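User: tokens in, sequence out, please.
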């Protein structure tokens, strides 16, 4: 039996990017390297001193002063040094670790991998002074096979990671370094990093660093696609094995009680598992038992002469189907309305560093709010967060770091090639997640510029080729008459800030302008629309009646005006509303930002503003209208599907 066409395509296009999340299983061990690392910023004028003096060759304490730096965390808000807060260039991290002898002996039959959850934005990694990998781009994981190096006689290893946060017209997000040559106004060698996005450019090692093992012959990747046909759940899978062409595989699917409900022991790396009357994966608040996950166990055995290898990997699988019509977004054949938020990975002191307390607090707030979805504005979030979306049924629009693409220079081949590579990494990382229902390739690019047409045509069609099972979008704030790229998307995502950035203070224009916005886009394209951002800044505790800008009352009033139009248009083609923003967040210093962006309905410390209670009221009402309780079977025979095959 051949792999299903969609799956074959997905695998062929994805090729060999990093795949499975590191995980402990009976055949895999894992060692967390979170904690304190030695740290030094390279403050030399060209930022090249670390490379010139080869700081990776000896312990860093021998080449100069080091400070303690927590990992994961952004380095920016950890010290009292304003120059480190705004530092641009190379920073160096180092950690000395012990590795168990049973991992590294040459006859252990093990492979040792060094994994970095994410580092912003460009990283070079050495072990004991030997470069093992480099990676371009933040917000996504990368790894290196360090087996050979770890087979040296020493059991203590020095891991050095140099990270550069410089943004250029060809990075994602793009940026520009501006040198100030007027020596009457600026010190010599003075430069600033220019960015065109509205969040602080936090940098450093943001997600956990791990060492993990696999057997030398190992499960390299697992891809699943789920479908539902006439009460039968179909899981089409493909497993790739690395290290040997001779292996046998068995797969078991267990329900949440641990019972095996489907299995395949024919030994082949692709096939289908079928289940009668499966428990479907439903979004939070759409069903009485949302987010049902099965556990897929993949067991591989291989023999090479007298040596045998065994690997075991488990994957959470949610059976669900996504479709898009001209007016609806369907999950398991039922209309789904996104009542959710836009977020940031952002918190006091940690910046963009992963923190479990913040993560769990945020999920508790989302559920309190009655939010069923979020967009990962404006970059991929940690795998740990995505796991919880699968587990809690929070639907995700998964966005890549294509934010601030404004200059014509950023629409050339060099940028496009990198953008395609980033989408490939993102799709590869999140392809098996039931919570991910749509890819967003960018936020507010200059999509009215002539080169945007072919840039987005290629980007969107390549993303669809990588994953034919999910719709693709990008988020626009360009006028419907000049936008050149929405034609290629499945869903229109539009941002607008009526009575804030335009007609500031004039609440009375919102309804007219918003209704026109929706009608214009829909008439031109006949695609469903999500209001992917709207909102207003409110300084918590600032009040006025009648409402004026920056007060909690004004934020509420803006939202109320938007709601009136949402309620009218959701009867037609509006399929979602995502408030900007879940919480206040840090930005670059500017005349329009008072200690960051204050459009949160929660403060940065996650305390509710008045708007949070108002939104909670609305979202629970919406949830009650759209809940589907499974007394009757869902109708999965959709005839009107137009965009997603
Ligand atoms: C937007 C951007 C978002 C900003 C927001 C604002 O359109 O997509 O990144 O933070 O507006 O508050 O200005």
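Assistant: Sequence out:
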């Amino acid at each position: 039996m051949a792999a299903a066409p969609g799956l074959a395509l997905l695998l062929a296009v994805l090729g060999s990017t990093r795949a499975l999340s590191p995980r402990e299983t009976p055949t895999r061990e894992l060692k967390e390297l979170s904690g304190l690392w030695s740290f030094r910023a390279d403050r030399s004028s060209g930022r090249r001193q670390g490379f010139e003096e080869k700081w990776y060759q000896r312990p860093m304490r021998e080449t100069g002063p080091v400070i303690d730096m927590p990992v994961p965390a952004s380095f920016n808000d950890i010290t009292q040094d304003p120059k480190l807060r705004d530092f641009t260039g190379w920073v160096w991290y180092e950690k000395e670790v012990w590795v168990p002898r049973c991992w590294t002996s040459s006859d252990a039959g093990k492979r040792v991998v060094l994994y970095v959850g994410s580092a912003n934005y460009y990283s070079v990694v050495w072990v004991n002074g030997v470069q093992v990998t480099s990676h371009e781009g933040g917000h996504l994981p990368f790894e290196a096979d360090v087996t050979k190096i770890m087979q040296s006689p020493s059991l203590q290893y020095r891991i050095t990671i140099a990270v550069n946060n410089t943004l250029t017209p060809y990075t994602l997000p793009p940026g520009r370094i501006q040198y100030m040559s007027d020596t009457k106004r600026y010190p010599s060698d003075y430069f600033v990093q220019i960015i065109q996005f509205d969040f602080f450019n936090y940098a450093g090692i943001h997600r956990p660093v791990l060492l993990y093992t696999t057997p030398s012959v190992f499960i390299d990747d697992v891809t699943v696609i789920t479908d539902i046909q006439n009460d039968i759940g179909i899981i089409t899978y493909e497993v790739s094995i690395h290290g040997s062409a001779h292996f046998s595989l068995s797969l078991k699917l267990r329900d949440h009680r641990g019972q095996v409900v489907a299995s395949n022991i024919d030994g082949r790396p692709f096939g289908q598992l079928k289940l009668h009357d499966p428990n479907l994966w439903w979004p939070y608040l759409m069903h009485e038992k949302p987010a049902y996950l099965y556990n897929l166990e993949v067991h591989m055995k291989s023999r090479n002469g007298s040596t045998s290898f065994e690997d075991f990997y488990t994957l959470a699988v949610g059976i669900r189907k996504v479709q898009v019509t001209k007016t609806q977004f369907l999950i398991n054949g039922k209309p789904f309305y996104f009542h959710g938020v836009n977020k940031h990975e952002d918190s006091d002191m940690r910046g963009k560093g992963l923190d479990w307390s913040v993560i769990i607090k945020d999920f508790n707030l989302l559920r309190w709010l009655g939010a069923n979805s979020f967009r990962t504005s404006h970059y991929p979030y940690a795998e740990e967060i995505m796991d919880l979306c699968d587990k809690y049924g929070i639907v995700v629009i998964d966005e890549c770091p294509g934010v601030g693409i404004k200059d014509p220079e950023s629409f050339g081949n060099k940028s496009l090639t990198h953008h395609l590579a980033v989408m490939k990494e993102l799709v590869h990382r999140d392809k098996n997640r039931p919570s991910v229902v749509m890819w967003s390739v960018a936020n507010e690019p200059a999509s009215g510029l002539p080169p945007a047409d072919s840039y987005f045509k290629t980007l969107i069609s390549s993303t669809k080729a990588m994953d034919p099972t999910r719709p693709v979008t990008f988020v626009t704030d360009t006028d419907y008459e000049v936008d050149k790229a929405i034609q290629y998307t499945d869903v229109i995502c539009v941002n607008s800030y009526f009575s804030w950035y335009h007609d500031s203070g004039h609440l009375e224009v919102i309804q007219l302008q918003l209704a026109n916005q929706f009608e214009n886009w829909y008439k031109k394209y006949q695609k469903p629309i999500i209001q992917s951002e709207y909102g207003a800044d409110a300084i918590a505790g600032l009040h006025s009646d009648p409402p004026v800008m920056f007060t909690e009352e004004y934020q509420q009033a803006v939202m109320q005006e938007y709601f009136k139009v949402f309620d009218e248009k959701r009867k037609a083609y509006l399929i979602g509303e995502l408030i900007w923003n879940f919480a206040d967040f840090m930005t670059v210093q500017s005349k329009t930002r008072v200690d960051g962006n204050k459009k949160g309905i929660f403060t940065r410390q996650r305390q509710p503003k008045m708007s949070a209670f108002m939104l909670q009221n609305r979202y629970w009402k919406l949830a009650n209208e759209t809940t589907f309780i499974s007394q009757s079977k869902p109708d999965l025979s959709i005839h009107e599907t137009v965009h997603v095959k």
